[in-house]
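Supplementary notes for students who missed Thursday's class. We covered one full example, reproduced here. Read the sequence, then the structure, then the short commentary at the end.
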Amino acid sequence: MKRIFKITQLLLVMTMLLLACQVSGTATPAISGTQVAAPAGSTGTPIPRNTYVSDENGVSIHYPQGWTNPAPDSNSSALAAFQSSDSSVFSELYVQGANSGDTPESAAKQLNTEVLTGLEQIKTISDATFQLEDGTQGWMIVSTANLSSGEELKVSVMIGMHGSRVYLLMTYGLTSAYEYYESDINALAAGMKLYSPVIAGVSREEALFLAGSESTNPRAFDPATTHGSGDKLVYSGLVSFDPNLNIVPEIAESWDISGGGTVYTFHLRTNAKFHDGRAVTAQDFIYSWERAADPTTGSDTVLTYLGDIVGVKEMNDGKAKSISGLKALDDHTLQVTIDAPKPYFLLKLTYPTAFVLDKQNVKSGSEWYRTPNGSGPYKLVRWDSFSIKVYQANPDFYLGEPAIKNVVVQLYSGVGIRLYESNEIDMTGVSNYDVQRVLDPNDPLHADMHSAVDVCTSYIIFDVTKPPFDDPKVRQAFTMAFDRQKYLDVVYQGVGLPAVGLYPPALPGFNLDLKGLPYDPAQARQLLAESKYGSATGLPPIVFTDSGIGNDSSPSAAALAQMWEQNLGVTITIENLDPNKYSDLLFSGTHGQLFDYGWCADYPDPENFSDALFHTGAAQNLGNYSNPALDAILDQARVEQDLTERIQLYQQAEQMIVDDAPALFTVHDISYVLVKPYIKGYVLTPIDIPLERYLWIQR
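Structure (token representation):
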């Protein structure tokens, strides 16, 4: 149970300074004045005089008249510091997450031992319960101890607990000074009040707290241009997935399909509103989708998710000013015509590109996304860059106000599992380095663990338009020189599944009988010799593009380069691109002959993999692969209505992709997530959904 960061060292240093002042006959100068201002805390309550308040840590302390509240020493992890008027007695406040089984007494005894380490002739003066003025029962241990010089110190360790936090108030000074101020010291300890932390005005007990990061790329926050899953708290669309991945109505209350499966008529809810109260109309969807299709928007996803709609490609190509396949029959009726009957079309509308936006909001300025006027279950009410995001439940949400009133995302606040252990957050993913720990039934975190196979595939793309990967034998050689299991063990800490093909195991269409290209270095070298380049020495310089900062190679890139060098005798140059702009740069063509990539299903259909990624001319076909025979199969699968036949076609397509090796498939991920037991309704879904609106807190 590690709690004290630099307390012992600081105690000795401050005591030495105190003794030095006494020896020289000079008193340590006190910080003049006391706290007299009474600003409002984050809760809006005025702060009384001589009171320290930290709402974000759930603690306030009223300190005696004449005492001061200086900033803690820079070498200490103390939250706050206090000192007597003559600077002869010092007190420091620390806060940390409680460990399982902690009590004020057990924590006080352990911390008292840590604090007094290095001192001599330690004597316990008192060791008993201590009551704070607010009625909280704490524990205080008072001890004396000698320095090596013989000077005697008196130290008190007072512990209070509230919810999942331990609060330590440590006070110390020479015994004579401590006893002179003893009544003040007891009043200081008793004056500590503990309560539920309030972060950004939100009580820790009444909100879902998460950890997160923030891109520096504005395109990441625009539903039309994001390469991720979008902000499903703020925005919404016609349809969505529920926690069981069933397609369910969102803004579209219902829909009719006619025209042989090519005309969809969506009936919008009359109570669907933007966050400012304006009703969502069919024209709002037309504006949002035409904005996505406008070539000046630069959407890399509009053709993938809305390209089936008649007229989207023409507008995206700059040949039309509007989407001909969209029509507002009235304010609450949207007619959408697609180019052929496709059984997966509705699934595509769950992706952010299809979300509805408020035109006035978008036109309000270049940073409109910072104050979004969405239609989703939560409103974004605060966003401090690289610090915090606060979402507030939307009371007018058309499907009912969410049970959890606030969601607080602390940005760049630390390692997820550590924040989870200290009860700073309620849910977190588990890194590969910590998986073995949470899998241990004896670990306290094991009971909170959820796991599932993702519908994701990591892979390396070969740009088939750039030598040497214009030759399929070279692509096959690089694939067969790759040891999947070794790569998984070294780079992924053994967490995940070797990817033989494109489709992940949880995806409909996954084929256990797929014949992959095996790990066979000898055969790989033979294929290289049979290629038009003749051997490794005949290959042009090869650049591997990765996401990273500076010149340091990622473990993944380093492992791949080492395998290819050992098995093929090929030297690979690794270049890093800015992680925040990695996808944008790849789509712009800024990459070497091969590069790191991955794909997670946006909807549970194999079309989202083989067709979206490897059809000739597909927007997501970043390796520029083209195979007319594959295209013919994919075109047939698009309109095939029989599910069994569709799956067979997609499995046939996958085998062709594996054989021709336009990509090297590496790993299928497995997710491990920790969720506090008081968060109810949680389901680990392999596809991102607006899960928060399905959750509730039950402490």
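Commentary. The two ends are 25 Å apart (CA to CA). The first strand starts at residue 51 and ends at 54. If anything here is unclear, bring it to office hours.
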